[in-house]
Amino acid sequence: MPISILRALSVLIPLLSAAALAAEPALPTGLGGASEPELPAGMEAGDSGPPLPGGLGSGDEPDLPAGIDEPRETAAFDDWEVGDSDDTEAPLGGLTGFWEARAGHRLQSADNQRQSSLAEMRLELEKGWQGLSWSAKATADLVYDSIEDSGHADLETGMGWLDLREVWLQWRPGADVDLKVGRQILTWGVGDLVFINDLFPKDWNSFLAGRDEQYLKAPSDALRVGYYGDGFNLNLVYTPRFDADRYIDGRRLSYYNPLVGGVVGRNEPLSVDRPDDTGVDDEWALRLYRRWGSYELALYGYDGFWKSPGGFDPRSGRARFPRLRVAGASGRGPLGPGILSLEVGYYDSLEDDSGDDPFVNNDEWRFLAGYEWEVARETTLGLQYYLEAMGDYGAYRRTLPAGQPARDQYRQLVTVRLTRQALNQNLTLGLFAYYSPTDEDAYLRPNIHYKVTDNLAVEGGFNLFFGDRDHTFFGQFEDNSNVYTAVRFSF
User: Fold this and answer.
1) Which domains does the chain have, with CATH numbers?
2) Which listed residue, 5, 168, 230, 356, has the most CB atoms within 10 A of its CB?
3) What does the alpha-carbon distance between residue 425 and residue 457 come to, in Å, rounded to a whole number?
4) pTM, full prediction
5) How many other C-beta atoms can be found within 10 angstroms of the C-beta atom of residue 278?
6) 272-273 vs 318-320, strand pairing mode
């Protein structure tokens, strides 16, 4: 591990430990709250992600060891309980949401970027409706952003004064079928901030700049059909027009541009050719899953495009999104004192079957193994090992353009999530760390969150990037290392 990473860890981990030890002592057994870790926003049911599926409540999840939260592999995305049947009794007529101010600052100078990584205010408004066999929801964020131009609204990228998160209608025609249409947040898979079969759009600019983790999940404009049977459950998602990731393009965060041979920013924004023909450039995603004892097993399929640019057109000089087909599987359930997660996926790059097109991503196998458990009262530890294996590697090396740095055939990644709660779970200390032994780069996310009252919370943290080479995944972001702080009032 590079010396700079060890130095950062030697500073960050004692700080987290000292804050935890200085916290109020735990209450006697039976008087404290439940020992549940706080999981990533946007990955779980409830306030921080998609709700549980139609026909599946919390009773359908496996019995987990004490202190371990619900699996991230939630079933589908039912919202039958949103809203209030009597808006006259609910505050603000059933309207909920929050106001947030968030600021971030780079820790070093970055060529062609502002020193501020975040400077924004956000007002989220959410409203739900519910009938006997239907429900609906609308969620919109009104944003003032001094980094990006707030004078317009781009619903695809989320930039501008309006980020429309959800506008959907859900209908249950029978006891075992539901349909959900409109803008919605979709998620599946068992990884913790590592994704294989979750091919729904992600907002990497929000994640790396220091916004709340709930904004890692970008919305999809889609139709979801759910079937819940005695032997198996099925989710089918159709997106009539391709929903790409909100990828790094240089306007807020710098990145490595192989054409330039170095890191660029606002001076060289990424130009893309994005598939956008409705009904032609569409996406299909499928999940077939069932319970087997205490375990949930799932099969996945996807037909669409690489979600972030995975190709390049040398004639136009623009990045593009080649066709992609993915098949995979996952399993999750209790093992010993914790929860074991396994996931695998095969990425079939349809426009480069033989691997000899240097301008299109090769086929890949992706594998993930994870384990999470409570190591002490109010303290949980999660570990993951992730592997990418490139297919047709010999053809890739033979056709690699001169002067371009080569990828390794096998890219390994290890993640660690350490979460400590104190002060009756009002204080949460967290550290999420990525480290790649093959790329020799890393990304650390230390975070402190304190709930002042039921409605008011403050937060602070870092996004720290390390790497000896500019072209590796985390190494290219070194100039983007930042510190951020936020205050949020919920209503």
Assistant:
1) 3-490 (2.40.160.10)
2) 168
3) 12
4) 0.82
5) 11
6) parallel
